[in-house]
Write a structure and sequence with these properties.
Layout (H helix, E strand, L loop, with lengths): L3 H35 L9 H5 L2 H68 L2 H14 L13 H22 L5 H30 L6 H18 L2
Helix pairs in contact: 1-3, 4-5, 4-6, 5-6, 5-7, 6-7
Length: 234
């Protein structure tokens, strides 16, 4: 199947060729008409009549010829200019669309690369171990522990998880990372980890007097919760 840009270029090329052909035909017809109908076949570059005519007659005839050509061909040239402009705009529009598609493809490739890199960070043994520890602490049942009973290592694991997703949230906030693909794979994990880490986050914010601490993680969790809600709806 021919690419749309190739079709546009082909149409524009044919349009330009038809315009040039039409102009050549028009010039020939105008010349023939003036020669036969106006000058009664007497005028040509090698005609005896033109060579024997005086300067005033030659000037008059050539002036009439110029007026005739100008009056007849100027509208054709104006119309041809419009057609040339249309052909140029068609080609430029197609080129802009192709450029937009290339930019979109490049952006998609960058997003995929960023997703792979972030996924690698979140899948390191340390990151997985920290999340598993959080799951054990907050899983309903005998293993669930109140936040006040968490050990120092438990809180360090929670802080490690906060730093992991804070990085992702910062990339999203800075528009350096498109969250759609990431949330498809990680939204439930993010929601679960934020629910487990929220007490740690609030306590750290109070201790440091910084209400924006790990704010990007919180925003990312909000996006993930909306995504989970959308998935839950029929």
């Amino acid at each position: 199947m021919q690419h749309p840009s190739h079709r546009i270029n082909t149409v524009a090329g044919w349009l330009v060729a038809l315009i040039v052909l039409a102009l050549l035909v028009a010039i020939g017809l105008v010349s023939f008409t003036y020669h036969v109908l106006v000058l009664d076949g007497r005028w040509s570059l090698g005609s005896t009549w033109l060579q024997q005519a005086d300067v005033a007659t030659r000037a008059s005839v050539l002036g009439q010829l110029g007026d005739y050509f100008g009056g007849t061909l100027n509208p054709l040239l104006t119309f041809s200019s419009i057609l040339f402009l249309v052909a140029t705009l068609l080609v430029q529009r197609r080129q802009l669309e192709d450029s937009g598609q290339q930019v979109a493809q490049s952006t998609r490739a960058i997003d995929l690369e960023a997703y792979v890199r972030v996924n690698e960070i979140l899948q390191t043994p340390e990151a997985i171990a920290a999340r598993e520890r959080l799951y054990t602490l907050t899983e309903p049942g005998p293993g669930e522990a109140a936040f006040a009973d968490w050990s120092a290592d438990d809180r360090k694991a929670a802080e490690a998880v906060c730093r992991q997703f804070e990085l992702v949230g910062t990339l999203v906030a800075g528009r350096l990372f498109e969250p759609g693909l990431f949330l498809q794979s990680w939204q439930r994990t993010i929601v679960r980890c934020w629910g487990a880490c929220e007490a740690v986050v609030q306590k750290r914010r109070l201790r440091h007097g910084d209400a924006a601490l790990w704010r990007h993680f919180e925003l990312l969790a909000g996006m993930a919760e909306e995504g989970c809600g959308a998935l839950a709806r029929p």
